[in-house]
Design a protein that fits this description.
The structure is a single chain. The chain is α/β, with parallel strands linked by helices. The protein has one domain (4-146). It has five helices and seven strands; from the N terminus they run βββααββαααββ. The protein has helices at 47-50, 53-58, 91-100, 102-112, 114-119, and strands at residues 7-11, 25-30, 37-42, 62-67, 74-80, 127-133, 139-146. The protein has a seven-stranded mixed β-sheet, covered by helices on one side. A hairpin with a 6-residue loop joins strand 2 (25-30) and strand 3 (37-42). The longest helix is centred in the last third of the chain and has 11 residues, at 102-112. It is globular, with a radius of gyration of 15 Å.
Length: 153
Amino acid sequence: MLDVSKLHVVFMGGARPDGPLTPRRYTFTHSDRTGDLFLSIGTHYDRRALRALQVRLERDEVLGEWVPGPEGPRLDLHMAAQGGFPGFGMGALRCRIFRHYRPTVLEALRYGDRALAEAHPGLGDAPVVAWFHWRRGRLESEPWGSWGVGSGD
């Protein structure tokens, strides 16, 4: 369950609350110490947030991007299944942790970008695809439901 008082949202470079849809990228990080969640929404990923020590060590950020497609837009979420300091978990464990927090991640993105959803009501049906990046270029994907609330989160 998302505690919205812990979610801090910032719009960066070229992104407005209501659009544009592409390019639109999400940088989602958190603080283990405070439990705060940080969501940057922009036309590029938030490189400053990605340089934070915790993020560099743990590599547990979620990077999202709206991708146009022949059947409509899709939200791709990218996560490092292996990366960062090895003490922060093996790939299979990290994937399980990302899956466990899937509802919180999706709720935070939807809540933080709710003006976009209001401006583009058709996005509720847009599929969400999780991409797990492994070492040596290995990549796995899995469906994570749809952008809309009530998608079985």
